[in-house]
């Protein structure tokens, strides 16, 4: 899911930084308008650490291997805090573990952060469809968790597919991109189920965590 350095042209990397900056500014603006913006910082810090560690958990799905992303989960639970949380998590993943890259940090942050914000909006639908209904909560949690990773996968597929360098074997690269994209389908289901289970648990033990 993380696009490393040296894959994308400079113009795409610069565009990624521009869109990530705009999305982060928008998220921080929304956070600053909340009653107590600092109240969500501990929760955001905890899930930023979970996002950082999740990339270490690889799941072998032949012919590829994928890792947990949790951007949909962060969007559902953190709301607008998800964007800066993912940006910080990606920075440390790139610096500490060379997972992703600094030139592609903006693109990766846009792909995972903006889709997390979309997952947040999906999760908010539970308040319209059936506030307090646990089935609706679980379904919205599943769609947010699965939708976050599915949308991010489509975005990465589109970016990679449209920017394959001419000097590479285009057919081989396309086959690799197709395989990597298909490998994320079961991952989306796994993250959807995990998100649904987590929001049901939080609703039972600490429902105020889901307010936001």
From TrEMBL:
Cellular location(s):
Cell membrane
- One Pfam family from the record: CbiM
GO CC, alphabetical: plasma membrane
**Where exactly are the transmembrane stretches of this chain?**
6-28, 40-61, 73-97, 104-123, 135-164, 176-202
Question: Which GO terms are recorded in the biological process aspect for this UniProt protein?
Answer: transition metal ion transport
Which UniProt key words apply to this protein? Cell membrane, Membrane, Transmembrane, Transmembrane helix, Transport
Say yes or no: keyword Transcription regulation present: no
- NCBIfam families, per this entry? PRK06265.2-1
Q: Does the keyword Isomerase apply?
A: no
Listed PANTHER family: METAL TRANSPORT PROTEIN HI_1621-RELATED
> Its domain of life?
Bacteria
Q: What is this protein called?
A: ABC-type Co2+ transport system, permease component
Q: How does it sit in the membrane?
A: Multi-pass membrane protein
């Amino acid at each position: 899911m993380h696009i490393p350095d040296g894959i994308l042209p400079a113009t795409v990397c610069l565009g990624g930084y521009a869109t990530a900056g705009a999305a982060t500014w928008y998220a921080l603006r929304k956070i600053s308008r909340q009653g107590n913006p600092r109240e969500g910082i501990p929760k955001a810090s905890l899930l930023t650490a979970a996002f950082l560690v999740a990339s270490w958990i690889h799941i072998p799905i032949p012919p590829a291997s994928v890792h947990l992303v949790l951007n949909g989960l962060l969007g559902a639970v953190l709301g607008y805090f998800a964007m800066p949380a993912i940006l910080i998590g990606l920075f440390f993943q790139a610096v500490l573990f060379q997972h992703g890259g600094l030139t592609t940090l903006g693109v990766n942050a846009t792909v995972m952060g903006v889709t997390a914000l979309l997952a947040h909006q999906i999760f908010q639908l539970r308040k319209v469809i059936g506030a307090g209904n646990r089935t609706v909560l679980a379904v919205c949690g599943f769609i947010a968790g699965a939708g976050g990773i599915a949308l991010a996968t489509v975005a990465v597929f589109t970016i990679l597919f449209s920017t394959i360098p001419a000097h590479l074997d285009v057919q081989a690269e396309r086959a690799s991109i197709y395989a990597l994209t298909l490998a994320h389908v079961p991952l989306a289901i796994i993250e959807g189920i995990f998100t649904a289970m987590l929001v049901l648990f939080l609703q039972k033990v600490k429902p105020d965590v889901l307010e936001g």
